[in-house]
Design a protein that fits this description.
- With about 260 residues, the chain is mainly alpha-helical.
- The protein has one domain.
- It has a two-stranded antiparallel ribbon.
- Helix 3 packs across helix 4 and helix 7 runs antiparallel to helix 8.
- The longest helix has about 40 residues.
- It is elongated, with a radius of gyration of 24 Å.
């Protein structure tokens, strides 16, 4: 059996170009891009998804990978995949920032540990919210939705030298404000409650100067903070659903991905 150079390029590109987009998305997605997941696992996952998705996508252009056009196609696939994963990564960042705000208000800003998702030192409360939204991510089948979106993108946003436009990148930058808005909404119940607690401690210290408020105020603030966190769990869950839905809508707003 003989193959021409064009046929061989088409056969290789039929799996290589989709692999680049899928691998880029997995590398930028939350949870899957975490440091505690070995690179080999991510590579195997990307290859497995490529073997499943590649046979059902439209024909890819017969372009030599080692050429200017091949480089442009690789660049476009990287941009598409990274954009999809990065958008949802900002959803997780909203709860990380919200946990940091609450920790500072409770006086637990010094209590930090290594965040396996971002690979940096974060407050323990941020780790609690990261674990919570990670469970919600899998419970709500967010990983399956992301796989479905990237699979459909090959039909609506075919592999070519052109793809995402500059306006789409600006839309992603503008959507970043939702990350900070979501963080404030997550931390708002705790901020409000701890504000009243601190005001009460201040009035007690003013009325009875002989009491050592600083000795007991720290413990009271921590206990009150944990109580508010426990009572506001429903707010966190609903806020995750809202931000995640907005993130998916933004991903679908990329030309042709709807």
């Amino acid at each position: 059996m003989l193959f021409t150079g064009e046929e061989l390029s088409t056969m290789v590109g039929g799996y290589f170009w989709p692999f680049v987009r899928i691998a880029a998305m997995i590398s930028a997605m939350p949870v899957f891009s975490s440091n505690f997941i070995p690179v080999k696992v991510r590579l195997i996952l990307a290859i497995a998804l490529t073997l499943i998705i590649a046979p059902v996508i439209p024909p890819v252009p017969a372009v030599d990978a080692i050429s200017i056009q091949g480089f442009l196609i690789i660049l476009q696939q990287l941009l598409v995949g990274v954009s999809m994963g990065f958008i949802f990564h900002m959803v997780f960042a909203a709860f990380t920032i919200g946990g940091q705000i609450i920790a500072m208000q409770m006086g637990l800003g010094f209590s930090t540990m290594v965040d396996p998702v971002n690979g940096s030192q974060t407050p323990v409360l941020s780790m609690f919210y990261i674990l919570l939204v990670t469970l919600l991510f899998f419970i709500l089948n967010g990983h399956l939705v992301m796989i479905g979106v990237v699979a459909k993108s090959f039909t609506t946003l075919p592999i070519a030298t052109s793809g995402i436009e500059a306006q789409n990148f600006w839309d992603i930058v503008v959507w970043g404000k939702n990350m900070f808005i979501g963080a404030v909404l997550v931390a708002l119940p705790a901020i409000t409650a701890l504000l009243f607690v601190n005001m009460s401690l201040g009035m007690i210290g003013r009325a009875a100067p002989q009491l050592n408020i600083f000795a007991v105020g720290f413990s009271i603030t921590i206990v009150a903070g944990f109580f508010v966190i426990m009572m506001s769990m429903s707010v966190v869950v609903s806020q995750f659903e809202v931000i995640a839905l907005e993130a998916f809508n933004l991903i679908k707003a990329i030309p042709g991905v709807e």
